[in-house]
Design a protein that fits this description.
The protein is an alpha+beta fold. The protein is built from five helices and four strands. Helix 1 crosses helix 3 and helix 2 packs parallel to helix 4.
């Protein structure tokens, strides 16, 4: 019972976070102190784009850490969401950044 409740609570909290923020990055650490290379690269990309974004440190909350993987059906962190849609991890972010797609995606949302 308690494990199922934790999963549904985490999913609900993740849904709220994703719904309330135009751009949100679930990552290890914070934007000021990333705790892994992939999270650091994701933050650098978003900082370079100059877009306002929220971060969620999955290391501070084991339910969110596991829950975000279930929420997106994506096995790794970081995970980027734009306007409630899952975009991908740092490799996908890098590809989209290099092609200009990510800039278009985040700028389209801020207009």
């Amino acid at each position: 019972m308690s494990e199922h409740k934790a999963v549904s609570d985490a999913k609900e909290r993740i849904g709220e976070i994703v719904g309330k923020n135009d751009v949100v990055l679930f990552m290890k650490g914070t934007n000021l102190f990333p705790q892994c290379g992939f999270s650091s690269r994701a933050v650098a990309i978003l900082d370079h784009l100059g877009v306002p974004y929220e971060t969620v440190d999955v290391l501070q909350d084991p339910e969110i850490r596991q829950g975000i993987k279930d929420y997106s059906d994506w096995p790794t962190v970081p995970q980027l969401y734009v306007k409630g849609e899952f975009v991908g991890g740092s490799d996908i972010m890098m590809e989209m950044f290099e092609s200009g797609e990510l800039k278009q995606l985040v700028e389209q949302d801020s207009q």
